[in-house]
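[Q] Does anyone have a clean structure-token version of this?
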Amino acid sequence: MAETKQRAREYETIYLLKSETPDDQVEEIKERLRGVVSREGGKVIRFTLQGKRKTAFPVAKTNKAMYVHCLYVGKPGLVAEFERNLKMIDGVTKFQSVKLADDVDLEARQVEQDVKIAAPEDEKPREERGEFTPGEEGFGPDAAEGMEE
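[A] Here you go.
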């Protein structure tokens, strides 16, 4: 008789935490979500903590948030339970889940170590990054006059 392999789907969820969330609370949230996935018969592949970043628009009346990415494998109902738990956590301001693949072998998918990415250099003012220097040629009201040739 042939072996029956357990098939599942692969998902990723990115959620935003309030920027003032302490590190120990971030770890508690990760462990809570890890428990939800395992309770539903899934497996967390990896959490990626991407640090505090500026958001494209204000979220929960603030311009910065801590970004966390979770990659996991499980049955179709898992996402609904995962998102339900995210809604109950006060520190979570926004989240989005995406299905990455169908028909993934649950047993063959290896668990990876959690990753912490350093905050981007976007925190520096534009002058320090070398993008723009006030008074630089090519910028300002006089720049348009020189281009009309």
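[Q] Thanks! Anything notable?
[A] The chain has one domain: 7-119.
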